[in-house]
Amino acid sequence: MPHNEIIKVDNLCFSYEEESPPLFPPLSFSLQKGTITLLKGPSGSGKSTILRCINGLYPRGHVESKLDGEITVFGKKVEDYPPGELAKHVGMVFQNPRHQWCMRTIREEVAFGLENIGIPREEMDLKIDEVLRLVGLTPFGNTLIDQLSGGYQQRLALACVLVMEPSILLLDEPTSQLDPYTRKKWIDLLLHLKNTLDLTILVVEHNTRDWLPISDQVISIGQQSPDSQVTFSPSLRKRSIGDEIIRLERVDFRYHKKAPLRIKDISASAKKGERIAIIGANGSGKSTVLSLLAGLRRPTKGDCYLELKGYQKWKETILHERLGFVFQNPDWQFVEDTVLEDALVSVATNPTLVEKGKEYLKNFGLGEMFYHHPLSLSEGQKKRLSVLTAILPNPTVLLLDEPTFGQDANTTAILWKTLEEYTEAGGTLICVTHDMEWVDAFFDRVWLIDQGSVIFNGAPRQLWKHKDLVEKCHLLPPKEKKDGDYHAELFVPC
């Protein structure tokens, strides 16, 4: 083994079932001590699987799978490490951080790993305090994890790994749910830790713009042919915007009677055919607002209206037919045993929509996965399936929470084209997103949320002029572009 070689991957192939073809061609690479390596490729190409092979989860955690080739960490084969031993050297942040929680509160979760290796209580408390400070979670130590936003859960996941002081970090889209400002600070923090602690980092990311300048090595897998790549430029066709279709009126919300207000006196509305982006810093209340609009939570005060009629006056089944909703965590969406059944769950008796659903699956890159279980998909594939399931019945209002999570440039473009067609046909789109480029080019209005309140409601181009709000809410406005430059800047093929 070369002096600085930490990890070596030699002719790695992996299949989830003995008889199925490998996810990727034989792959070989090595990681040097104190370097950052970026692993990129299309959604579903096997990037997350490679990380799980390196940290020993596969094939141990997937008994029907088959792994060929060899992976060594510090010169020792991964399969030769006793259970738990490899975790002392290799820390991993999962693409969906919810997959790694064991405890109820932030502080308990960070303590969990330290308790398992017998760290004394006084030393443990010092380590927890320091790592929570590093990731900006000090005020939230006793907060329940299931009340955290996706971005704050990503912070917690990194804290749980860092507190164990590994020499190798495997990061699976660690910044995908962070607001733009926090994402930049996050990457700066990782670069600082890499330099001060001599960490070796392997990161999977679709949004490579911030990572490429600091990466020592870039590995690409599953390349698409130029003919199969899709780009997206917002249509210049004038859309018809109708009357008000959905509204929040003087809405407050708290999780329980003794909890502080999470949402404070929000009044906002959207019209038929309109595109609304809900934006703001992590933890500002964006997903909570979306869940109130979806009727999944009841306001503590105030009311929600669809077509001028309060939600409580709608029959619940009809209300939820009119409101299409996609969770931030797609795992919560699935109710059937196969991809095809889940996609068609609400339209199974409509032959026209059944055929349309099958076409959607093919367009979304899921055509060969009809009979796979939804939970066996990659996170990006799950997200596309959840969007498809919500949009196929053609709801009056479509409510999406981070729909581009886990997507490569190609699948992002396909999603955006689908949403454009939906709104051009009269559908109303309300979407939580951190993608300011998309907000600027695609949406009619933004609701800027700060500490549970809407502090700006207007056109994106007007918001960028309010430098005080942009700075306060950790936004990074898009760079000025000439007409037609949008897709060229966004879609650099992986």
Automatic annotation (TrEMBL):
GO terms for molecular function: ATP binding; ATP hydrolysis activity; ATPase-coupled transmembrane transporter activity. GO terms for cellular component: ATP-binding cassette (ABC) transporter complex. Gene3D superfamilies: P-loop containing nucleotide triphosphate hydrolases. The keyword Protein transport does not apply. It comes from the Bacteria. Residues 7-248, 246-476 form the ABC transporter domain. InterPro entries: AAA+_ATPase, ABC_transporter-like_ATP-bd, ABC_transpr_CbiO/EcfA_su, ECF_ABC_transporter_ATP-bd, P-loop_NTPase. CDD domains: ABC_cobalt_CbiO_domain1. Keywords: ATP-binding, Cell membrane, Membrane, Nucleotide-binding, Translocase, Transport. Coiled coil: none annotated. PANTHER family: HEAVY METAL TRANSPORTER, HMP_THIAMINE IMPORT ATP-BINDING PROTEIN YKOD-RELATED. Belongs to the ABC transporter superfamily. This is ABC transporter ATP-binding protein. It comes from Mangrovibacillus cuniculi.
